[in-house]
Known about the structure:
Blueprint: H1 3-6, E1 22-26, E2 37-43, E3 50-61, E4 69-76, H2 83-96, E5 102-106, H3 112-115, H4 118-125, E6 128-131, H5 133-144, H6 152-160, H7 166-174, H8 178-182, E7 191-192, E8 198-201, E9 204-211, E10 218-223, E11 228-232, H9 254-263, E12 273-276, H10 285-309, H11 314-321, H12 328-347, E13 352-355, E14 361-364
Parallel strand pairs: 4-5, 5-6, 6-7, 11-12
Antiparallel strand pairs: 1-2, 2-3, 3-4, 8-9, 9-10, 10-11, 13-14
Helix pairs in contact: 6-7, 10-12, 11-12
The protein binds zinc ion (ZN).
Amino acid sequence: MNDLEKQLHYPLGETLAPLGGALVVAQGDGSGLTPAIKWVRMALPFALNHINLWLLRDEAETSDGAGAMVQGWSIVDCCIAHEKSKVAWESIFANELEGLPILRVIVTHMHPDHIGLAHWLCERWKVSLWISATDYQVARIGCLGPTGFGGERAAEFFSSHGLNSPEAVAQIQARTGYFPALVPSVPLQYRRMMDRQMIRIGGRDWRCIAGFGHAPEHIALYCKDLNVLIGGDMMLPRISTNVSVYEAEPEANALALFLDSIDRFRDLPEHTLVLPSHGKPFTGMHTRIEQLHQHHRDRLADVLQACTRQPCSAADILPVLFERAMDLHQTTFAMGESIAHLHALWFDGKLHRTLGADGIYRFTI
Ligand SMILES: [Zn+2]
């Protein structure tokens, strides 16, 4: 545990939901829907090696119009479309649903670890996908081919920001199937979630809170009754959320969007239990919001200082932002983050951007 984490509180201590299993994290009250939330944890084959998914005890009206209620569960987030994740889900279905069905699939945002199996889950249970309109559309397009993670235009974009290792550029060019490999399809229809919309889940109101800068239109879910925020990737306890600029929106100010978005959690009670997509459930969200602001303020100061010494491209900034060696997957994320930091200073008027004769953008005071 690092020093910053010690300022947060983990109510479950070191207890984790077993990989491929579930753990109750919130009990229901007198509504009879007990337990209310189960934490499901699944393995990921990346540097970030797991994802947290949630089962919310739910009910839905039967379609015959008689007003009777069907009992069941709603899923929040899905894992990537790998055979192992399907096997894990089948085991969850057999052991954790108390004989009840899945009633809907809610997805916080369109990244592969969150939406990958939505098509399979919705088909498996004949239920609807609930997601923001922006993330739904971007995921639909992502299934069709190259996205910000790879392909010719992504390689050109990163080259224009100084990534000049022929090997890395060639690998990014060749990586056209990254998104479809993890998200082969998404359901053909969806239910739209929007900022401030109230969704009734298990007899309780959940408020949608939109967030930007990490995904196009991420939706976190807050339930006052349960005192719980499903934070998705917008409120993580240990790692800082990836905030990147990609070639589809080359002049985005993603970091400013992200920092504004986390400020929207400030009006939630301090003792709110945050259920993050990676790491352990925690309280101390207001402290965490401050830590994230401080983290980015420090990084921005480092970047500004580097650009004061000499004009810097995003690639020049990588060693300033990241100390560790990175594989290609991480380098792509890191380049996106580096551009996001330079853009925050650029849009703030602290840096100027010039395009060199070599076709590379550099930032200078
Ligand atoms: Zn994400």
